[in-house]
Structures are given as structure tokens and as C-alpha cells.
Amino acid sequence: WLAIPSGFSAEVMAQAGWDSLTVDLQHGVQDYLSMIACFQAIARFPVVPMVRVPWNEPGIIGKVLDGGAYGVICPMINTAEQARAFVRACKYPPEGVRSNGPIRAAPYGVASSYQATANREILCIPMIETEEAIANLEAILDVPGIDAVYIGPSDLGFSLGLPPRQDREEREILDIYQRILKETEKRGIFAGLHNMSPAYALRMIEMGFRMVTIANDSGLLFQAARSAVSAIREKLG
Questions:
Q1: Catalytic residue list contains 27
Q2: Res. 112 pLDDT band, cuts 50 70 90
């Protein structure tokens, strides 16, 4: 989860062994050009480049795909209609309305197989993170073209009147997780979840989640730095 707008830090993260790296255009401090720099930096590693877009808007969705994203995570998908609009923005005709012009995703203006394969290779992942989305869960999951859903625990709890935080333990939230896992498995798609700690991520994998993220680059940097400083200060008294 890349919040830092730096190709160098993205390259460092790519060497850490992640299966995918997601440039966060919603809550990170990334912009489009820093996204491109991150993609260029990680291109030589076996890492899937993904993006969380700031909103369900066709222009930015098409642009991040043209820039080389192979998965799009979209926040605040609350209805089947919004899910259909998201899928259509991700896919070329006849399945969608994405405009042709994959400036980095394929050689621009020359014959390429990208357009022939993009619709089935690009991951379309709506975020389930509100009470409304939970109420419409089955309808959202039934939208053709949805490959997975990704849970935002902080906003989900917030929408239910709970404090916004990660790694939740409330029975109400864990029951929602179980329901999402059951319904996604029934449809042959997978469920993802944002986590803050490896220990919690492992628990969620054991529960059935197939995609887990752990904090983000800035958070991991802060944790490691604070741990190093604290170890010295505690030793010195």
C-alpha cells in the first residue's frame, strides 16, 4: 500500500516480497505522475501494480489503467448501480465504456494484444465500507465483472456508529466479515481486507480472506523508526 509519492520507496517496497503494490490515490499523498514513477520503479519485480482511485469516476479510472494499473480498487461502492458503473469504466467495449489510449499499459498507436486481453486481466475491486453497501451486498456481488471486494474496516465501523479504526474485534464487524466471505465464496470471487498488523492479517487469512494488505509504506516506516528509537532510549534510560 503505497502512500509515499516516491519511485525509490516503491522500489524498496517491491524488493520486500509483496505480491502486489497498490498506489493510494485516495488517502495517500500520491498524484498521477508519482503513480507513474512508482510503476516504473517496480516494473522489474514480480509485483502486480494496482491503484486505489479517489472515487468512482470514469476519467481517473481510465487514466490509471492507461498508466499501467492491472487492478483498480474503488472506494465507497454502495449499490449495484455504482458497481456496474465502476466495471464499465474499467472495461473496453462492448463490456464497458473505457476509451482506447493505453499510453503506458501497451505500445500506444501500434498493434497490441493489450486491448484483446485487458477486459479479462484487469482486476475490478469495489470497496465495501458502509452500512448501505452491506445492505446491498448480494446485489453488488452479482454484478458481472466484479473480481473481488475489499473491505475498509475504518469507514465500515464509522458508518455503523463505531470509532474509525483497523484490526477490529467487535462481534458485529466480525459477523459482517463472515457474511462477506460466505457470499463471495458462493460466487467464486475473493474477499480482501485492510489490516494494520501481520498478526491480524494472519487471523484474517485463516478466516478465509484471500487478499490482505498490511498498513502502508509510511506507516511501516514510522513503526520501524519508532521501534529503533525507542529501543535505544529505553536501553539508555
A1: yes
A2: confident
pLDDT in tens, 155-167: 999 999 999 999 9
- Over residues 19-55, the pLDDT tens digits come to 999 999 999 999 999 999 999 999 999 999 999 999 9
pLDDT band at 109 (very low <50, low <70, confident <90, very high): low
How many angstroms separate the CA atoms of 9 and 126, rounded? 26
Q: Which of 9, 27, 45, 167 is catalytic?
A: 27
DSSP H stretches of helix in the chain? 7-14, 32-42, 58-66, 80-90, 114-121, 131-135, 137-141, 153-159, 171-187, 198-207, 217-236
184 contacts 137 by C-beta, under 8 angstroms? no
Euclidean distance between CA atoms 15 and 3, whole angstroms: 17
Residue whose C-alpha cell is 499510453: 103
Could you identify the residue written with the cell 463472515?
Answer: 178
Q: 84: burial class by Cβ within 10 Å (0-12, 13-18, 19+)? A: middle
Does the pLDDT value for residue 9 go beyond 70?
yes
Cell digits of residue 91:
472495461
Report yes or no: 99 and 61 within 8 Å, Cβ to Cβ: no
For helices 7-14 and 217-236, the axis angle rounded to 10 degrees is 80
Pairwise CA distance, residues 184 & 179, whole Å: 9
